[in-house]
Design a protein that fits this description.
Layout lengths: L1 E3 L5 E3 L2 H23 L11 E3 L3 H5 L13 H4 L10 E22 L5 E5 L3 E4 L5 E10 L5 E8 L2 E2 L7 E2 L3 E2 L13 E14 L2 E21 L16 E25 L2 E8 L2 E12 L10 E3 L2 E8 L1 E9 L5 E11 L5 E6 L3 E3 L8 E2 L3 E4 L5 E14 L2 E12 L17 E12 L3 E12 L2 E3 L25 E17 L1
Antiparallel strand pairs: 1-2, 3-9, 4-5, 4-6, 4-7, 4-30, 7-8, 8-12, 10-11, 12-13, 13-14, 14-15, 14-16, 15-19, 16-18, 17-22, 18-21, 19-20, 20-25, 21-24, 22-23, 25-26, 26-27, 27-28, 28-30, 29-30
Length: about 500
């Protein structure tokens, strides 16, 4: 029998080697399945998709819908798996995200004059954590027209942590929005099937899910409203809270098609259905130091959390004016309007012994306002194949523009997403007929944003009064963010 090299030339393979290849592929699939049950790392995903994913596709700035032809297709277009053959792919990337937030609030002085006050700037940073792709594909049928693929991936999302205090132990201006997302782990296992009935048509379909857990640390304010006994943001009434959501398992599906009307042109479309997440949660609260809480305790910690992640539509056209050159233009729309809020429903969580309050005092449901909009992005990318002596090399580059999904009034340190331009470079080195080594570097240029105190719409959460509340908004201010992505990968083709 024969297998194909990266550029389609056949190589004779002994039967023993073919059997070994099948065993290795089965082992990789088993490893991927085991990884779903026991994920090896933490803090892979929360909030928004800040960048496209996958080492090779990102080298093309995510313009990988029509040109998808390897295991990178599991995220972009499952129809492209038809050209993956018997393959194993492993890659890892680091999303180095950094943000700056200067909170801006409007206060009234003793004379009732409205003044705008800028708090000290705080910086959000990400840990060095690899974001993986692990996938295996197996081709079968009399013409190898069917390919089944098993994969485990994680989206490239911004995991930021902010200080709890600044300077001389003063409370951080960002504490009511976010302290940390450490301990989060959301991954996407998938099983997909592709079919190439004729050379001009490729079809793919798959089932996938969001699985894992989500964790966040944030400060709630337990100060009664209307300055009843304290200032609205008196640190003595701050309640440091840890919310852990999971186990999460939210199934969904995706599908795609690629049409090849001419050897120089490929047209691709694909879609991902949304994810509805409803999962058990626990809330641990460090009660305020204010005197009414001196003898208070928390009873119960169970809750339920619900939120939605978007469906995605992709379309692309790739042209191949010469055999060595591939250029694609792609469009992506993410339907973030399904992400209205993050709703936390306590299950009989009570505060006991709070001076001046009924005992027990039930903690009310909490709704964190999101109100996202649909976003559009446009990508242009390509790759050029060259040979240097006995080695083959692919050089890649691309650029993409993406609109923010977050209306200005709802921008907050919990998830900072701004209009952004991503510039990428990457490449592959082929060693022999089986091995391909990939690398990518991308820089995300993100604009600045200002949320005025008058338009800010994310209120300070106050479970003492319950939600919805008329507490002051806490997301006004100046925002700046940028990111770098560095990734390496390895493909083995049998």
């Amino acid at each position: 029998m024969t297998v194909q090299s990266a550029r389609g030339r056949g190589h004779k393979v002994p039967r023993a080697a073919h059997r070994a290849a099948r065993l290795a592929l089965a082992g990789a699939a088993t490893t991927a399945l085991f990884a779903v049950v026991t994920p090896p790392t933490e803090a892979h995903a929360a909030g928004l998709y800040f960048s496209d994913r996958g080492v090779r596709p990102l080298g093309r700035a995510g313009a990988f819908v029509a040109g998808a032809d390897d295991l990178g297709a599991v995220w972009y277009n499952p129809a492209g798996l038809s050209d993956a053959g018997n393959t194993i792919l492993v890659d890892v990337s680091w999303l180095n995200f950094a943000s700056e937030y200067t909170r801006r609030t409007q206060v009234s002085d003793a004379n009732g004059t409205q003044r705008v006050y800028d708090s000290p700037k705080v910086t959000g940073k990400t840990p060095i954590i690899p974001i993986p792709t692990l996938a295996g594909a197996y081709a079968f049928g009399d013409r190898k027209q069917f390919v089944v693929a098993l994969s485990l991936i994680a989206p490239y999302t911004a995991i930021a942590s902010y200080p709890l205090t600044i300077g001389n132990g003063q409370p951080s201006p960002s504490r009511y929005n976010l302290v940390s997302l450490d301990g989060s782990l959301l991954v996407l296992p998938a099983l997909q099937l592709a079919w190439k009935p004729i050379e001009q048509v490729r079809l793919g379909i798959g089932v996938n899910a969001v699985a894992g857990s989500f964790a966040t640390s944030v400060v709630f304010s337990a100060s009664p409203p209307n300055r009843l006994i304290s200032a609205p943001e008196d640190p003595a009434y701050d309640a440091y809270s840890k919310l852990k959501v999971g186990p999460i398992f939210a199934p969904s599906a995706n599908a795609g098609a690629i049409f090849v009307p001419d050897k120089h042109v490929r047209i691709g479309i694909s879609g991902q259905l949304p994810f509805h997440i409803s999962a058990p949660a626990t809330i641990d609260v460090r009660l305020p130091t204010a005197s009414p809480f001196d003898n208070a305790t928390q009873e119960g910690k169970d809750a339920n959390v619900q939120f939605n992640l978007p469906g995605i539509f992709r379309a692309g056209i790739e042209v191949r004016p010469i055999e060595e050159l591939r250029i694609e233009v792609a469009y992506v729309r993410e339907f973030w309007t399904t992400h209205h809020s993050i709703d936390i429903t306590p299950k009989n969580i009570q505060l006991v012994g709070v001076t001046g309050f009924p005992s027990p005092f039930a903690v009310s449901p909490i709704s964190i306002a999101r109100q996202f909009d649909n976003s559009n992005s446009y990508r242009l990318g390509g790759e050029y194949h060259i040979k240097i002596k006995d080695y083959a090399i692919d050089a890649r580059a691309g650029i993409a523009y993406e609109q923010s999904a977050i209306p200005n009034a709802y921008l907050s340190p919990l998830t900072i997403d701004l209009n952004k331009v991503t510039a990428t470079i990457g490449g592959s080195l082929y060693v022999g007929p089986h091995w391909r080594f990939d690398a990518v570097f991308a820089h995300v240029f993100s604009g600045d944003a200002t949320v005025t105190p008058q338009e800010a719409a994310v209120p300070r959460v106050n479970p003492v009064k319950g939600n919805p509340t008329d507490t002051e908004p806490v997301n006004g201010g100046l925002y700046h963010a940028y990111a770098n992505v560095v990734g390496v990968g390895l493909q083995y083709k049998f």
